[in-house]
Amino acid sequence: MKILYGVQGTGNGHISRARAMAAALRQHPELEVQWLFSGRSPEKLFSMEAFGDYWWREGLTFVHRKGKLSPVETTRQLNLRGLLRDIRELPVDDFDLVISDFEPVTAWAARRRGHPSLGLGHQYAFNYAIPAPRFNWTARAILRGFAPVKNSLGMHWYHFGHPILPPIAQPHVHSEASEGEHILVYLPFEHHEPMLAELAKLPQQFIVYGAPVDMPAADNLHLKAPSIEGFQNDLASARAVICNSGFELIAETLTLGKPILTRPLSGQYEQVANAQALRELQLAQVVERVDADTISRWLQTDPAGVRIEWPDVAGHIVRWIADGRRQSPNELADSLWEQVVPGRMDRKSEATAGAAD
């Protein structure tokens, strides 16, 4: 079977999930995969060896400024003519199946030709009634129309009674979880200068990813460049994690049982919905601002994390595809949730243990 696999390159979560899928796909040589990435300029992609001779298209992306979605700049940078050309010219008929991890060029090209397509990723969980802001019909329509597919497998931290899969987030194989002194900060869309100024007011040590490494920083701040292994090591040994409300990093942090302080990006429907789910599931502390006072109050509560062991979701999905997708999505989801193992729990997360069973 020949597969065209499109991945949205904005942020690192989609690419992280794609790396896990690439490793699983290599175990099935009968599945021949051509990767395509869009949404991020090619010079900003890193550690892409797993994807071989991948294709790149400009695609679509959202522009953020100072921790907020900027609709004006998002519209301004849209190259609609180039997008339509890429959709029209993409040779989807050369493949048996198109897979889209919320990637619009592959998804719309398959839709335009009536070609078999499968959506994989967190965004496709929003096809069901899950925690999300009410009455925001415009944002819902954009989310559903961004990368439409014939069939989909959505993913979330809980199934909410629907055929939604657990996250693709495996335990760290290179770094054993431990509790160090530093706090990992990953806030790539924030206004970096005031954010670093707030962190500098605190006595704790912070390792910061996502900010320019050449920015001036206080002695308690260690700014680091993007690195898969470095980030995983620092995450595994962190005392706690401060991040926006993206899906993949929080899923990965839950495998390690680290306390999480999170702020959803303003105006970003998916992250606001994620924050709502985190509150309901009691998996993280959700705040409106990330500043010295908020962080200090959070640390004074001596937060404890929730550890959840997710099954090998990527491996199961690839075997499901190789087997001709004969098992229904409901059956696939049920079999995976039966394998979810809640680990260390504290008094704040007893309810989550029941949810994960």
Question: What this model shows, in words?
Answer:
The chain has 357 residues and is α/β, with parallel strands linked by helices. The chain folds into two domains: 2-168 and 311-342, Rossmann fold, CATH 3.40.50; 182-308, Glycogen Phosphorylase B (Rossmann fold, 3-Layer(aba) Sandwich). It has 13 helices and 16 strands. The strands form four sheets. The protein has a six-stranded parallel β-sheet, sandwiched between helices. A six-stranded parallel β-sheet has the order 11-10-9-12-13-14, with helices on both faces. The protein has a two-stranded antiparallel ribbon with strand order 4-5. α1 packs across α11 (313-322) and α3 crosses α4. The longest helix has 13 residues, at 13-25.
Topology diagram in text:
Layout: E1 2-8, H1 13-25, E2 32-38, E3 55-56, E4 64-65, E5 68-69, H2 71-76, H3 80-89, E6 97-101, H4 104-113, E7 117-121, H5 137-146, E8 151-154, E9 182-186, H6 192-200, E10 205-209, E11 221-224, H7 228-236, E12 240-244, H8 247-256, E13 260-263, H9 269-281, E14 285-286, H10 292-300, E15 308-309, H11 313-322, H12 329-337, E16 341-342, H13 350-356
Parallel strand pairs: 1-2, 1-6, 2-3, 6-7, 7-8, 9-10, 9-12, 10-11, 12-13, 13-14
Antiparallel strand pairs: 4-5, 15-16
